[in-house]
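The step that takes the researchers longest sounds almost clerical: writing a folded protein down as plain text. Below is the pair of lines this work produces for a single protein:

——
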Amino acid sequence: MQIEHEGKTITVYTEDEVEARIADEVKGLKTTNQNLKSEKEELQEKQREATEKARQAEEAQAKADGDVEKLTRLIDERAAEQTERYNKLMGQTKKEKINNALNSVVTKLGAGGEYNEDLRDLLKVRFEFDYDNESGKVKVTGDGVNSLDELEAKVKEGARYANYLAGSKASGGGAAGGKGSGDPAGKKFNEYSGAELKAIKEADASEYDRLRTQHYGT
């Protein structure tokens, strides 16, 4: 809508209209970026083809002239380009495999939405990920972890990840942190699983804070 302000007519948009416009602009930028990426890849391929044709012509002339030095140089150039393309492909494959493995763990254990994003960022910082092309497996190291299975266990059991995990669906007397849960008296913060801590926090934030302060001192 339009309103008068200090003698000027200005247009004011609702929050929904602003969000819709931003979403459209983001979508448009993504499409533009994808198109630019495709155009760049197409141009690079044409340049490679042109370079190879020129090299083949030069190679044929060198053979006719018996120019061994030039033939050796052309062979080395072709080998170097093939190695560079192979390494680039392996790098892309490694990145894709690691991201897929990490996303799988986060999707399986996380509470969804921003919780998953935060959990993913935290795991990237705390652990080292690598991909072994020969075995086709993603490797994980750090904080006593040496495999994806151990990483899952660490996330599920570690108190530092409790806030990001899917909450326990248990309820009633047996629920973690619930009234009359039957937990042994004096059970400490670090003795609860991540899911139990999240359930306690959702049920009684003050009790969660008390346990945490008791354990960490802050």
Q: What stands out?
A: The radius of gyration is 29 Å. The longest strand covers residues 128-132. The beta strands are 2-5, 8-11, 128-132, 137-141.
